[in-house]
Amino acid sequence: MGKGAGRRRADATTGRACPCGSGQAYADCCAPVHGGVAQAQTAEALMRSRFSAFALGETGHLLRSWHSSTRPARLELDPGQRWTRLEVVETERGGLLDTAGTVTFHAHYRDAGRPGTLTERSRFVREDGRWVYLDGEQP
């Protein structure tokens, strides 16, 4: 999801559903990870937090959760694109005791009012003990 968007700033006090689709309130799901209060415990949890970050315009979290060897110097989100729904298709490894994992997903969006879907197989690794996004490929 290199080209992201989101105009709203995350507000953990609203009690709204988390954009990642977990079914939890944002305040109990991705907000602590975005705010640096908690770390994603699995590759899938980091993927979900990154989707929410794209949806909410949390570029700081996106940059912090990117591997140092592939992280861009800056990240500008497309204001015309709105991320609407995440479907996790498959997770391989990326658990509590793993050092690497992959997550395949469909990220649904609207761009200038038109619907679209990004499908990606993202690779995650641990860097300094925490999960980070390494790279992804689109099938």
Order of helices and strands: HHHEEEE
Q: How is the biggest beta sheet arranged?
A: 4 strands, antiparallel
CATH hierarchy: architecture: Roll
What's the average pLDDT? Answer: 91
Domain YchJ-like middle NTF2-like: 42-136
Organism: Micromonospora cremea
Family: Belongs to the UPF0225 family.
Pfam families: SEC-C, YchJ_M-like
Notable characteristics:
139 residues; alpha+beta; Nuclear Transport Factor 2, Chain: A; 4-stranded antiparallel beta sheet; 3 helices; 34% strand
How would you characterize the overall build of this protein?
The protein is built from three helices and four strands, in the order αααββββ. By secondary structure, it is α+β, with helices and mostly antiparallel strands. It has a four-stranded antiparallel β-sheet with strand order 1-2-3-4, with helices on one face. Strand 1 and strand 2 form a beta hairpin. It starts with 30 loop residues before the first helix and ends with a strand. The N terminus is likely disordered. This is UPF0225 protein SAMN04489832_1157. Belongs to the UPF0225 family.
Layout of SSEs?
Elements: H1 31-34, H2 43-56, H3 59-64, E1 81-93, E2 100-111, E3 114-127, E4 130-137
Brief synopsis:
The chain is α+β, with helices and mostly antiparallel strands. The chain has a single domain (26-137), classed as Nuclear Transport Factor 2, Chain: A. The chain has three helices and four strands.
